[in-house]
Design goal:
single chain, 266 residues, three-stranded antiparallel beta sheet, 7 strands, 40% helix, TIGR04255 family protein
């Protein structure tokens, strides 16, 4: 019977798996379909050229991606809160004070102790210890650990941003630029370009964004270039840039956390 208390959690975990697959299918298809196009143009003074992002305002897959990621993150946060409610039902069904129940995520022990009294007193003692052990501040002594990089901190940050401010902000991390073609300085004089450049540059991509300038000593008569840009998509979290694959880690970590609590339902 107690295992049935976890049913809402399990259903949402399965939904989260579907959501993450849909997110990455959207990314892969949007990149393959060139929904964000890159073009080049010469400077007004004709002494060089620049690359720019096309105007994809009416077909902005980053906006669509933000909405889907927001739904996915909200689902993960909801899984944790539903888990605490299920644990409270193990302790006393129905819980005595359900409005106080949520999964606490605190970066400070003092705040945790002060703000979780009404939560922890409603759940089994082993579950209280597990919740404490999962708090970001418990890892503060690990070399190089930053609590804002912890999965539960990231879930909280993204969920709060999506609900109260703006959806997730995406960054394009450019990896390789391939250029092929000719730059004409008059009808007959030209420079042929066929090269590949590797770099790691992170840019918030917006419609009509100008980037990657190339300067010349002579006036450009005409540009006849084709180029390809390979890039990855990342999410800006706190002051860090996290590859979008990190979303999968958030799901895995949530699954592992739920697994740790299952013994309370035996």
């Amino acid at each position: 019977m107690k295992k049935d208390f976890l049913r809402p959690v399990d259903v949402k975990l399965e939904r989260a798996k579907v959501q993450i697959d849909e997110i990455f299918l959207l990314v892969e298809k949007s990149v393959a379909d060139n929904r964000i196009k890159f073009s080049c143009n010469e400077f007004e003074n004709k002494l060089g050229y620049y690359l720019y992002v096309g105007d994809y305002t009416e077909d902005n897959f980053f906006e669509e991606l933000s909405v889907r990621v927001g739904e996915f993150i909200h689902n993960l946060r909801s899984i944790l809160d539903n888990l605490v409610y299920a644990l409270a039902r193990v302790h006393n069904d129905p819980p005595k004070n359900p409005r106080k129940l949520s999964f606490p995520i605190c970066e400070n022990r003092e705040i945790f102790d002060r703000s979780t009294i009404d939560i922890l007193e409603q759940i089994p003692l082993p579950a209280r210890e597990t919740i404490l052990s999962a708090q970001p501040f418990m890892f503060g002594n690990l070399p190089g650990f930053k609590s804002e990089s912890y999965v539960l901190s990231i879930i909280t940050y993204l969920n709060n941003a999506d609900k109260h401010r703006i959806p997730a902000s995406f960054i394009a991390v450019f990896d390789e630029l391939y250029i092929n073609g000719k730059i004409y300085f008059d009808e007959d004089d030209y420079v042929e370009i066929n090269e590949t450049q590797k770099f790691k540059i992170q840019l918030p991509v917006t419609p009509k964004l100008k980037f990657f300038e190339f300067h010349t000593e002579d006036f450009i008569y005409q540009i006849d270039l084709e180029f390809k840009l390979s890039y990855n998509i990342a999410i800006e979290v706190f002051d860090e840039i996290l590859h979008i694959d990190y979303l999968k880690n958030l799901l895995r970590s949530t699954e592992i956390l739920v697994r740790h609590f299952r013994n309370n339902f035996e």
